[in-house]
Task: structure prediction
Amino acid sequence: MKKEKTVIKIDNLTKEYRLYDKPIYRIVETFFSSGKTYYQSFMALDNISLEIQRGETIGIVGRNGSGKSTLLQIICGIIKPTKGSIVVDGRISALLELGAGFNPEFTGRQNVYLNGSILGLTQQEIDSRIDDILSFASIGDFIDQPVKSYSSGMFVRLAFSVAISIEPEILIVDEALSVGDEAFQRKCFAKINQIQEKGGTILFVSHSTTSIVELCSRAFMLDRGELLIAGEPKQVVSRYQKMVYAPDDKVEAMKNEMRLLENRFALPLEDEEPRRERVGGKRQERQAPQSPSAEVSEHYDPHLVPVSIIEYERKGGTILNPRLEDEHGNLVNILENGKSYSYVYEVKFDRGIDKVKFGMLIKTIKGVEICGCSADSAKAGCGTIAEGRVVKVTFPFQCLFYPDVYFLNAGVLGEDSDGEFYLDRQIDIAMFRVRGDNLKHCTALTTLVGFPEVTDE
Ligand SMILES: Nc1ncnc2c1ncn2[C@@H]1O[C@H](COP(=O)(O)OP(=O)(O)O)[C@@H](O)[C@H]1O
Ligand SMILES: [Mg+2]
Result:
């Protein structure tokens, strides 16, 4: 095993911006020092300390303006911190927010040379790589047009191709990848995997929390310049999502709760104790769904209960008793590959509402979304929903999952004059295990409908 090596070390790093009401105040202050301050101080980063080891893939999440880009720019050496220290050990290459590092008047080809030299390549080194760069970017003849005529997708293709051409030891990607089309994104992610396999270090800012969970070994959450939490990506991402969806007046309390977390900079995958909590409310204990005959059996294990349940603030509806049933309506949570089941829950409405969508989503342990769908109340023929009504929602499915553990989510969306909103939304609300001794040779997530055959020609 490779010895751990710190490649980025940041201590008590602060970046302050001084906001002057009028530009002239900056000059007045410089030349006529009267002790008076003419600016408002704004902390884009506030006393951040962190360490990143070689081989880690770090995801950074945070609301807009929380300091993610500022942090990445400081790591790249593009801007200087106001206070604190930063040490970077390794050849770094960055794909920063669109525009950074490219001259819009130059052609794509000229920008490749310009950026290559910024990254430390000689003219000959760029000459020998240019074919690879151009073929990865695949923007055709546009390469000899000024980049100001590029679409954002073309731009990001070229910028990413240049960034990876130096085989970076540390690759930094700020949002940019979401601009490309899916096929190109897949190609970039494959490249990122290659860099990971070679032991490279990656820092990755993305609004796609699924990508963060899928790609990263660790995640950081910034908010208003503060490093709030760090640790296992699924944990960090679910707390981040909870905060993003919380009502404004609850956010500060949620931040305080995070500040008090034990291990807040090293959150483990799951808490030891079962945890159920309501967003913006008190922690809440609730019994695991159980049928009267619920006891350990071949198809039901009462101990198989999620410890990462998140219940969002309710707005007029409650999802009740989410569960899986076999074809005979028996409660199950140990499923057999190939058999038919239903995901069932009831919804109690505390307000009348015209249109409702009932949703479900199945995820892996790492948070990868496997399948989700929703049923429309109008199409399901249940018409306008009156206050106090309870409906049962059933999603039948054939279990094509490979043996592993999966998590269920449920959400009920209502619509009023302001648009769609969640009446109730519950994350990791139930879990199930898929059994299949005959599938031990399989990989990935789901099976084919039939079993493989090998025959003589
Ligand atoms: N040059 C600057 N002068 C003043 N404020 C800035 C400057 N650059 C960034 N900021 C502010 O710093 C904060 C953090 O910005 P940024 O790092 O871009 O956030 P993020 O990438 O998380 O959206 C924002 O409020 C932004 O307005
Ligand atoms: Mg940014």
Remarks:
- The pocket of magnesium ion (ligand 2) is lined by residues 68-69, 97 (CB under 6 Å).
- Confidence is low (pLDDT under 50) at residues 271-294.
